[in-house]
Amino acid sequence: MPASDVVEQPEQPWSRRRLRSTNERLLLDRLRALGAASRAQLARETGLSKPTVSSALASLAAAGLVHEVGTQAPERGRTAVLYAPDPAAGYALGVDIGRGWLRVAVVDLDGTVVARADIRNRARASAALTDLVVSTARQVIANSGVDPARVVHGVVGTPGVYDEKQRRVRYAMHLPGWGRAGLVDGMRTELGVPLEVHNDANLAALGEYTYGVGAGSRLFAYILIGTGLGMGVVSEGRLFTGARGLAGEIGFLPWHGRQKQERLEDAVSGVAVVESAREFGMRGQLTAKAVFDAARQGHPGAVRAVELEGERIAHTVAAAAAVLDPDLVVLGGGVGHSVDLLLRPVRERLRALTPLRPRIAPSRLGEDAVLLGAVATALDTARDLVFERRTAGT
Amino acid sequence: MPASDVVEQPEQPWSRRRLRSTNERLLLDRLRALGAASRAQLARETGLSKPTVSSALASLAAAGLVHEVGTQAPERGRTAVLYAPDPAAGYALGVDIGRGWLRVAVVDLDGTVVARADIRNRARASAALTDLVVSTARQVIANSGVDPARVVHGVVGTPGVYDEKQRRVRYAMHLPGWGRAGLVDGMRTELGVPLEVHNDANLAALGEYTYGVGAGSRLFAYILIGTGLGMGVVSEGRLFTGARGLAGEIGFLPWHGRQKQERLEDAVSGVAVVESAREFGMRGQLTAKAVFDAARQGHPGAVRAVELEGERIAHTVAAAAAVLDPDLVVLGGGVGHSVDLLLRPVRERLRALTPLRPRIAPSRLGEDAVLLGAVATALDTARDLVFERRTAGT
DNA sequence: GGCTCTAGTAAGGCTCCTTAACTTTATCCG
DNA sequence: CGGATAAAGTTAAGGAGCCTTACTAGAGCC
After folding, report:
1. Does A394 map to a domain?
2. Chain B interface disruption, residue of A1, A14, A359, most B CBs within 10 A
3. Is B325–A242 a contact, with Cβ atoms under 8 angstroms apart?
4. What CATH number does residue A35 fall under?
5. What CATH number corresponds to the domain at position B99?
6. Of A252, A256, A320, the CB nearest to B356
7. CB A344 within 8 A of CB A375
8. DSSP assignments along A60-109, one per residue
9. Nearest protein residue to the C1' atom of D29, measured from CA
10. Residues 6+ apart with CB under 8 A from B233
11. Which of A42, A59, A85 is a domain's end point?
12. Which terminus of chain B has a smaller tally of CB atoms within 10 A, N or C?
């Protein structure tokens, strides 16, 4: 899954150099996980000796990866100098290419957003869309005031699956022309930032896991219900992608609909809510949001449509639960937004369907899940890159 | 899921000692993966220097982990001394507790079986069963001629899921009394071998992955169809267990059977084949095997029952495929045995159900899958243990 | 027998870690 | 206010382990 630009170290032998580097990495990770700490403290926690910690930290500081952030007086004794990772040592780029919106964010190594843009995606051709992505990203980087050269990695979220070999996005039904080969390569060279591409549901899962309600879950599933139906799975902190990156394509789950060829995706996504509302007697220009609003007002047809949607979501959750055994399932996406109405019917129906009942929760990040997932993924690589390059030129 | 006996190293700091140990491990793994090799060859492949390889290998040899296994003359130049891992440096125990059979095997570190027993499991109470397991294991170890102290680790496969906290097996429907707490601890102390317990379908998957048709698969699913219905998933060589070890409990997949409360397990397992055969007009004392045999003879009722079973398996495979995206699905277990008849209907039905069509293959290991999976899992830990202990007493 | 090529060993040096003692700086207490 | 105590951090000495270089050992070829 790494973009081609991400160089794989050719399996360095375990020489002394690597020992030093491993210890520096150990300290840096410790600082990132637990926040600022003094050298003596780090020595105690890592088991390294004080002199070693001092020298490694000095070398990290020289490379600009850590810096002093203050002091702390212990109960008695000399005041300690605290060190913390320097968030400005590098930056990462996150992009969410959705059907309706394009979102771009630049974050520092701490993960704090330093600049961001959300603009409507009105592009109706792939060329216009890549242009929009590139110009928006440039704009956001410029706004952040960050030297573009310090943006070391980027991750793009999009419907569909990126095929590394064919260098194109596949299965992106809802974006016209988006399957053409070389689009991503074009953006990469125009931006001058290494880019990785991932499925939007997968990234949303990772975003919700890193910044949202998924934190600490051992096996976490994020179900994205909107224009389409998708699922992202995070297993022990890592994205679960399957053999070809198609894991979580639950739109293809077996489903006995009215028509022979109906797919689960058509039965659960936003369109289906509108359809069933119409069958239950609602009239006029309907959207999924309108149906949910009407249900909140007590409109009987809308209520029944929501009930039905809840049952179908329960069916989906039950299937995922039987295969994956998640401890937490989060509902997100356009329809997932109306979780207040859906949660009860989903849970009730689930009780009838299966003894495996994972915790079900609404998304905390909402529309930002994909973008934040992209950012989190990019950060992972960016942190590695910045560390690897610490010895090379500035 | 490591048993409590398996001590976790308390996160050694990265001192030189660990460097040495890591290099020794690197060499040992290389030898295990590629077979015998000379020191010069190892130096070239690992990037370590010849002196380092020599000294590390000498230390491994002193610990009894590797030994000379012959010589090899290069095209020209001095003949090289070949080194290989010593398979007798330790042994592992595998146990498959099935409803019908109890299987036990002792293997050396190369994975070759040095002793084995397959005996009928007629125990109808948990105490009788643990006694049987312990006495059989003792017998097998005795037969192998191996010093019992050198059997460093064991893995037990059983239906259900082992709950580490409650120290008991849960969800083991088909073994009477098997859910009592402390049973495994009892066997462990009686045998004097650290024991881990895993779900049988999971182990079968790992067995088929390690020794069977699953080799090299990125995401591999093994569906066990017999008395019950289960699935094991191997993702990038590691068992995928879910949050609580219940991943692959596909007996709980949503299913619209005739009766309201029918579960997929009841619709797919061996009993279901008999049932539908009876509905299609077969008479007499039926077993799943008998139905399949009749279908091979062309009995129309049996043929239709098999066809139906194939469709239901396809439903199962389709659900698993949509969630996991496996590149290979293997059918195993009692019913899976008759894959010759099932493969065509499964594939045909799958074509109609979903565009995701993983490769489907019959099990190569058959009844041995669980045992071999247990053995493979135990070996993993045994190799670690033997390596860790190399510095301690003999 | 000499040449060449490969396997393996020996010696010396380098890097990096640890231990132990020491300095610095703070609080506590008489 | 000055000494005892304690913690942070530095300096110095020693050692473990790896690499490089240079060498020896053995095998085939001319």
Report:
1. no
2. A14
3. yes
4. 1.10.10.10
5. 3.30.420.40
6. A252
7. no
8. HHHTTSEEEEEEE--SSSSPEEEEEE-GGG-EEEEEEE-SSEEEEEEEET
9. B76
10. B202, B205, B219, B220, B221, B222, B239, B240, B247, B248, B324, B326
11. A85
12. C
Residues A228 and A311 in one domain: yes
B197 and B225 share a domain?
Answer: no
Q: Which nucleotides of D are covered by protein (CB under 7 A)?
A: 5-13, 15-22, 25-29
Note whether B247 contacts A47, CB cutoff 8 Å. no
Whether A2 is in a domain gets the answer no
Residues B242, B343 share a domain: yes
Q: Which of B199, B204, B197, B211 is nearest to B241 (CA)?
A: B199
The number of domains in chain B is 3
Based on the fold, state whether residues A220 and A358 are members of the same structural domain: yes
Instruction: Work out the number of other CB atoms within 10 angstroms of the CB of residue A244.
Output: 16
Q: What stretch of H or E contains B157? A: strand B151-158
B40: nearest nucleotide, CA–C1' criterion: C7
For B19, residues 6+ apart whose C-beta sits below 8 A from its C-beta are: A14, A16, A19
> Is-contact B269 B226, C-beta < 8 A?
yes
Question: For residues A321 and A358, is the Cβ–Cβ distance under 8 A?
Answer: yes
Q: Is there a contact between A222 and A330 (Cβ–Cβ < 8 Å)?
A: yes
Residue B393 falls inside a structural domain: no
H-helix segments, chain A:
16-34, 39-46, 50-62, 126-144, 183-191, 200-211, 264-268, 270-279, 288-297, 300-324, 333-336, 339-353, 369-388
Q: Give protein residues whose Cβ lies within 7 A of nucleic acid chain C.
A: A 16-17, 19-20, 23, 47-52, 55-56, 73, 75-79; B 13-16, 38-41, 50-51, 54, 74-81
Same domain, A227 and A353: yes
CA atoms of B3 and B10, how far apart (whole Å): 16
> Could you tell me how many residues make up chain B?
394
Q: First CA to last CA across chain B, in angstroms?
A: 28
Last residue of a domain, one of B25, B50, B85: B85
Chain C nucleotides near the protein (CB, 7 A)? 4-12, 14-21, 24-28
Length of chain A equals 394
Q: In this complex, do A252 and B14 lie within 8 Å of one another by their Cβ atoms? A: no
Size of interface A-B (CB pairs under 8 A): 137
pLDDT at A287: 87
Distance from CA of A249 to the nearest CA of B (A): 5
Domain that holds residue B185: 89-204+370-388
Query: Which of A4, A13, A26, A49 has its CA nearest to residue A387?
Result: A26
Q: From the centroid of its chain, how far is CA A279?
A: 36
Query: In whole angstroms, what is the distance from residue A268 CA to residue A73 CA?
Result: 58
**A255 and A358 co-located in one domain:** yes
Note the CA–C1' distance, B74 to D30, in angstroms.
19
- Tell me phi and psi for residue B369, to 5 degrees: -60, -45
Longest dimension (CA), chain A: 78
Do residue A229 and residue A150 come from a single domain? no
Q: Which two three-digit tokens encode residue B278?
A: 């009876």
Q: In what order do the strands lie in the sheet with B359-362?
A: B238-239, B229-235, B219-225, B328-332, B359-362
Same structural domain, A335 and A239: yes
Which pTM was predicted?
A: 0.88
Residue A35 resides in a domain: yes
